[in-house]
Please model this.
Amino acid sequence: MLKPRPTPTRELVNLDGLWRFGVAGRVQDEPWTGRLETPLEAPVPASYNDLFTDPAIRDHVGWAWYQRQVRVPRGWDGERVLLRFDAATHAGRVYVDDRLVAEHVGGYTPFEADITDVVSAGQEFRLTVGVSNELTNVTIPPGKITVDQFGTRKQTYLHDFYNYAGLARSVWLYSRPATHVEDVTIRTGVDGSAGTVDYAVRTSAAADVRVRALDETGAEVGSGTGAEGTLRIDGVTLWRPGAAYLYDLVVEVLDGDTVVDSYTEPFGVRTVEVRGTEFLINGEPFYFTGFGKHEDTPVRGKGHDDAYLVHDFQLMEWIGANSFRTAHYPYAEEVLEFADRHGIVVIDETAAVGINLAVQGGLTGLAPEPTFSPETFNDETRAAHAQHLRELIARDKNHPSVVMWCIANEPSSNEEGAREYFEPLIRLTRELDPTRPLTSTAVMFARADNDLIADLLDVLSINRYFGWYVATGDLATAETYLEGDLRAWAALGKPVMMAEYGADTMPGLHSVWDQPWSEEYQASYLEMNHRVFDRVEAFVGEHVWNFADFQTSNGIHRVDGNKKGVFTRDRKPKTAAHTLRSRWRGLQNRKPGTAG
Ligand code: BDP
Model:
């Protein structure tokens, strides 16, 4: 799905700001039929959970309502008029005055409503949006709703981060011509010193198409006609990690000589490939340094914030991170665009976190109930997962920063039924995008000798907490466990990366001993991991869990959130930040010990 942009034929109105807000039960039934009866206002974009002091709002399970008036610009007569929601977490319903115009399931991908037939240029309408935070066995991510003895609905889920909900990303009103560009797919290659740009344009109706590629100065470097074709950019400047370069593809829909629609999609020319045990970008081995992140800040929850965006990328540059994983859901498009412009490499993850009931069994790894079964995660769950993959790839396929799809985080990939669940999803992902490698992160119970999906993946991403959840405080034992585990994965003959390793750390707690939670322990724990990584041949990268401390649901081993951040939640460095900085700034995208 194309991001709405202002172009010579399209106009865009941003609908962010304060909206009337209330949760179901506190506002009238059918709130879309009139003015929302509430004293509250909520900012868009922001999760609503941490804004108010009322616990009934924070703990609410079900629909929450947002409402505002919107005026259609008077010049839009004759244009199609659309609403675009960058995300409504986890399900959305949109009403224009009394009328339902869109429904969407999935909290981290965008959706639109064509409202041309129900609004008029120059006139106002009442826009009401319902957002549900409910997670079940057939949503991605999954969860479970129960009713307690007091009749209160309770939401539980299989991930530790807090289930923030609401309109956490921007809302737009935009105009588009009747005959328009529906979609653009760009795939790039390298041929000597030239770049090849395969493009495919989908239009809303049969029409002539013209494309032009422009470089960063605006000079035309290639052009073509027809809905599909290949452009050649001689003397191309490649998009490289740490040295981004973006071209624009200007796509025009023609009626004779008249341009009826124009849309510009930025792109970078680069290749990605897995060869043997190497991960290659532009044919050169790439070693990932960086983090699993979260979209998480105080007060805003998962609300997108450009100030944190800029600051987080500054800190990543400061520390020598060349990449990050969008754990555990697709991030705001602004984040990927920023990564595109600044040469940061992204592993783009779905929201499929917690397809795993074995974790409930604690460290025994025994599932109290099977993960894959008609009663638990079933064909309907997989269909939701498939739909989520379609929407993710439709949204993110043209970002040069995205070098790999991560189809799930810590699924129960060693459990019966895992292969049947994942094989069709992996096939679908490869059909949707044959250009990018695939991975999925392996939970601690999934080992090289019992994992059932590793052979279907291109890169083996491993999450391990030896020295934290296992062999706590005993780094010598942890080191032997980790080395044995990783060497077994490496023997499978594919690139291996550490997608998560980390230790909870209380800023300000210090110790001369290996004391868990101290700043020194986090640093020693990371150094122990690094010693092992440097001994494993097939290793292609290290992503520390987590970039920053983040909010979690209530739990006895979380004190005001997960404290595995290398930075605090307000982005102050812990001691380990300096440890990582001295290691990563020397690596320059290369595996330690390799020449270059
Ligand atoms: C891993 C999960 C991650 C958690 C982390 C932890 O992938 O989401 O936050 O453990 O326990 O299993 O800190």
About this structure: Residues 159-160, 328, 409-410, 463, 500, 545, 562, 564 surround beta-D-glucopyranuronic acid (CB under 6 Å).
